[in-house]
Amino acid sequence: MSTLMLDIPTRNSFTGPEILQALSEALPDATVHGPVEIVLDVETTGLTPWAVKKPLTNGKDGDATPRCRVLSLFLPHNGFQTAVDLDQFSSEQKRTLVGMLHGHVWVGHNLLFDYQWLLNLHADIRPARIVDTMLMATAIRPEAVYYMQSVIVQAETRQPSPRKNYAEFARHVKDKMAHKTRSGDKEGGALSLDDLALWLFDQKLDKTFQKPQNWMPDYLSPAHYDYCMGDVDIPPKAARALLKIDSDTDIHGVLDALDNHNGGKAYRDMEEALHVLVRMQRKGLYWSHSAAAELDAALNMAAITAMDALEQIVPALGAFRERLLNPKQGMNDALKTSIDQAIRAETGQGLPTTDKGNPSLSAKDLEEVFPDSQVVTALQGVLKPVSERGKIPQYAALVAEDGRIHPMTGINTVTGRTSSQEPNLQNIPRDPRFRAIFAAPEGHKIIATDFSSIELRIGAALGVRSWRMLRFLREDNQCQSPQRQRIAWIVQKVPELLPWLSDPSEPVPARIAEANPFPDSKSQPDMDTWALAIACQLCVIVKKIHTATEGDEAKLPFRLAYIKGLDPHMITALAMESMSGRFELGGLTPIAYLESLTRDAQDALKKTLKGPRQAAKAVNFGLIYGMSAESLWKYGRQSYGLKWTEAEAEAAKNAYFELFPEMGLWHWLLKNAFSQKADILNPYKAYEVQPATAGGKLYLGSTLSGRLTISSKMTSGANYQDQGTGAEIAFRALRALPEDIQSYLINFVHDELLLEVPEARVAEVQALVEKTMITAADSLLLRYGIPTEVETSMGDCWVH
């Protein structure tokens, strides 16, 4: 790398305003000469410009005001690089500096973070394109984390790794997997720049000055400068390596390769969404101090009332009344012991334990182990309002001078879905009183619009796609596709399978029909037995589909339900109730029965079957991703408050796959045609290697846009396809909104858009938002015959 030699910056020293002239000479005007590649990175004293001020703790002098302290720049086209200490700049000089970056191609890692700070210095700044290596790893190289795992497995089971930083590499990967396992393997975090440097270049990055407090001192040392410039060349190198193109490819070649990749459409949606998300953060949500005070008083009264009831049941806990009612005080050993004794006296069983063997008092664990305990119910009656009350000052501490909260909403999960920080406004309590705190200022209303049943609609589309895929695999006689090759061994050992799939109206071949679809793996069945079992599973599914549709794709049950505008939860509830003998459908299918009713009758039935419909929600959202009956039972209890048995969960599962057999086909394909053996870490025991020869397996799929998804769990493999598609739909909606409507956005929660709108424009904006969201969803769902609906709530606060 050649460096543009200048008289102004000296080696190992930060520059000040004097760099402006040199930068203007090194960086062409984008409006005249077109955009060039700018690699940039910022060092800040806080996570966001509105972060709570946290003073230095090392006894040194410094300014803890949240601010962008250093901007590092590298121009690959001419080698110019510098790091500027922005504390030496006036506000106008900062604006001038950042303004020079406008219209160029920004390259970096997790650029939403840098973008928010630069936008805070110049409100009109906007790059021509964003090449973000974190988003690239998510959108175009989802196999990266499993390639990294394979390096570990091969090194620890076959031959030592030649990597000089192997120990650091292995620690990174195993710790990341352990965190994912502890968090329930819901989504997992995106790859960090450290991950990419270790994976792609066997390079360990310096993290000496990573924390914000390192950028608060009055004087920045040469070591600070070296830290800033030490990895400035990693993002552009990583971008080209991720795309598998030559390292000297110019930025236009990088963009062409990125746009033409099978994950390029999804990346473009993410890239364009960043512009909207950073400006949404800058807008923020208005905070109502009066509503917060009212809620605090109400929660305090509820906690006191619940504490009185708890003392009636367990008098001994009265000694801990003050501690239990104080949101700032946690559990001490004496209180834990007293709770344990009370539960043990009632149930004869002690507290559940964590993975490390410590007593667990989490609401989730207690409700799962002691679902009928009066002590647990009374205790949660106290802890829940106290916990919610404790969140109020946490949020209030982040209210900025403008009276608003400015959470950072980023795209940093493996599915591509967003997360929220400072504070997290994607998991606030659904208590309407809590949401009332996020109010509209005078003369405005808050519009909350979300996609109706979007996860299930996407699931229905994936079911249609699976039916089409099966047809393709059946007709792929040349065995060209990897999916056909993965099931070729089944076709070879069960040659009668393919002819029957061509006409499933015929009886299932006897040898397949008589096979055990689920042989005991402990008995170590031979390959012939396994092939017959898997073929039998497929034939059962296909037979159900053909019975329901007679070969007409438009009659696939899940698709049909949405075409006819029926409530999928009611359909599932009717199937469950009918199978249990508690409801008579008169010989009709649940879909046909519900369709035969008038809308008023459907609404009345929804009230009559309120409990079963609630259970159906757990079934629909759990089984769409292939939960086991045991997991479904726990999920229903914990997430929907269901008082059901494992046997009832098992029956509900059976009813679901009888009702929507195309979902079973999707899962069958994922397990068989879209899985492959691989050297990985055990997804259930993160620090344990699992070679391909010992059951290591990956589940490959794609979102409806074609973006590849990979997981080491079947359930997550299904989840990533569905929720990943949902993220892409939402991003398409964000980027398609007119710019003036984008300026009204104040929050975004997966599939819900929250806007603060002048009263005079409410009806107009609502119509535009709804139309834009439906169009975005239609772009991916209509090709599978799935229509889209959205729901809007409007009021003086966040009412959804």
Task: Describe the 3D structure.
It comes from Acidithiobacillus sulfurivorans. Its EC number is 2.7.7.7. With 800 residues, the chain is an alpha+beta fold. The longest helix is centred in the middle third of the chain and has 25 residues, at 289-313. Helix 33 (714-736) crosses helix 35 (762-781). It has four domains: 19-140 and 206-261, Nucleotidyltransferase, domain 5, CATH 3.30.420; 144-192, no CATH class; 289-396, Taq DNA Polymerase, Chain T, domain 4; 458-690, no CATH class. The protein is built from 35 helices and 18 strands.
Supply the key terms.
51% helix, 4 domains, DNA-directed DNA polymerase, 800 residues, Nucleotidyltransferase, domain 5
- Regions with pLDDT < 50 over 5+ consecutive residues? 1-10
Distance between the termini: 54 Å
The neighbouring-strand order within the major sheet is 3-2-1-4-5
The geometry reads as globular
Largest sheet: 5 strands, mixed
- Radius of gyration from the CA trace? 29 Å
| Helicity, as a percent range | 40-55%
Q: Number of DSSP helices? A: 35
DSSP strand tally: 18
Q: What would the average pLDDT be, to the nearest integer? A: 92
Give the percentage of residues in beta strands: 5-15%
Q: Which structural class do you get from the secondary structure elements?
A: alpha+beta
Taken together, the total number of domains comes to: 4
EC number: 2.7.7.7
Pfam family, one: DNA_pol_A
Enzyme class: transferase
Family: Belongs to the DNA polymerase type-A family.
